[in-house]
């Protein structure tokens, strides 16, 4: 009886907020969900699948969609196309999708924690910290892919810990203080990254400089698997903790009255978000603005006050895969790194977003 009453109250509040809500019941259990949120998620997932299928046909070597289906069906006379598909294109596509998902979900968490649309990991310095860890491995130790990914994750976590401790005051983290501290730490780390490029020999410096521009070129399964596993493991945990984080957004005092351990929830969610951002950075290099734009675009489509963890992740995958396709289909054989492409488009979006906020 108490469960039904709670659901009825939630449903009534949703109607008052103008949201289309429905209730799924199974015995004594009930779940309130939004039809629009499910529809948006389904559309983004379908779009991601269609783009992924199309991406298998894009490249210098011709592979048609019919041949892709034949290869998946076990056709024995397409050995060259099979190698191109499974060793070149599929790792690139999987890296793009899951790195985008990681950045989108990470951006949603940081924007919720900081209560600011500018609170994405690339703006508040965490991506710079991940890049510093990766550059140390590339420039000083000439390390491989796995070592670079682990170093990126370590650098991101250490940077997040420094920013969190510097922002912690009077028992809690100040939201504007978190953003400003992150920007300052990120500026220092960007300068350090420049010094690392000067420190290394010419070959390692060129490799590091190419990596800093963000790229999905020559990706293999050692790039794709870490970020894919990270997304599949951490995304459900982040969704599970999304409701307490939303309650914290209503105010620390109210959240305390509801029995939520504010700093623990905030710290755990930040840790998950940093790990995802660092894994994405280790797989594709520093990719700008996906973490900033994906949560905002997902929230505009959903028209809901809920934290868009899954929707932001799917939107991030769509944006990064679309940017990668754009870099491959651009005429005149121009080669533009994926990080530069997202930086150009994201910079325009940021100017528009700031102008909208000002109005």
TrEMBL record:
The chain crosses the membrane at residues 38-56, 93-111, 123-140, 146-166, 178-198, 218-238, 267-294, 306-326, 338-354. One of its GO terms (cellular component) is plasma membrane. It comes from the Bacteria. It is found in: Cell membrane. GO terms for molecular function: transmembrane transporter activity. The keyword Methyltransferase does not apply. Belongs to the binding-protein-dependent transport system permease family. FecCD subfamily. This is Ferric enterobactin transport system permease protein FepG.
């Amino acid at each position: 009886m108490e469960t039904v009453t709670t659901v009825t109250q939630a449903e009534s509040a949703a109607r008052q907020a103008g949201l289309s809500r429905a209730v799924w019941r199974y015995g004594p259990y009930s779940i309130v969900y939004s039809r629009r949120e499910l529809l948006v998620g389904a559309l983004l997932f379908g779009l991601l699948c269609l783009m992924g299928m199309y991406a298998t046909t894009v490249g210098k070597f011709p592979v048609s969609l019919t041949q892709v289906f034949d290869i998946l069906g076990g056709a024995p006379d397409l050995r060259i196309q099979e190698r191109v598909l499974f060793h070149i294109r599929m790792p690139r596509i999987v890296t793009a999708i899951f790195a985008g998902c990681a950045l989108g979900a990470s951006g949603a968490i940081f924007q919720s924690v900081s209560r600011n649309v500018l609170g994405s990991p690339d703006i508040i310095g965490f991506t710079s910290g991940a890049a510093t860890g990766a550059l140390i491995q590339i420039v000083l130790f000439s390390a491989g892919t796995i070592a670079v990914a682990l170093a990126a994750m370590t650098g991101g976590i250490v940077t997040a810990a420094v920013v969190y401790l510097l922002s912690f005051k009077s028992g809690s983290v100040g939201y504007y203080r978190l953003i400003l501290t992150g920007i300052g730490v990120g500026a220092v780390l960007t300068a350090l990254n420049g010094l690392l490029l000067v420190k290394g020999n010419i070959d390692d410096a060129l490799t590091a400089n190419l990596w800093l521009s963000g790229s999905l070129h020559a990706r293999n399964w050692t790039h794709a698997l870490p970020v894919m596993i990270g997304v599949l493991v951490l995304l459900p945990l982040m969704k599970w903790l999304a409701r307490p984080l939303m309650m914290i957004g209503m105010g620390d005092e109210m959240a305390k009255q509801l029995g939520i351990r504010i700093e623990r929830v905030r710290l755990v969610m930040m840790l998950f978000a940093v790990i995802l951002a660092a894994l994405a950075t280790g797989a594709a290099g520093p990719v700008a603005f996906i973490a900033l734009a994906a949560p905002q675009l997902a929230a505009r489509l959903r028209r809901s006050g809920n934290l868009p963890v899954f929707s932001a992740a799917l939107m991030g995958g769509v944006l990064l895969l679309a940017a990668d396709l754009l870099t491959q289909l651009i005429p005149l054989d121009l080669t533009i790194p994926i990080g530069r492409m997202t930086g150009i488009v994201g910079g325009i979006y940021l100017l528009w977003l700031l102008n909208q906020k000002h109005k």
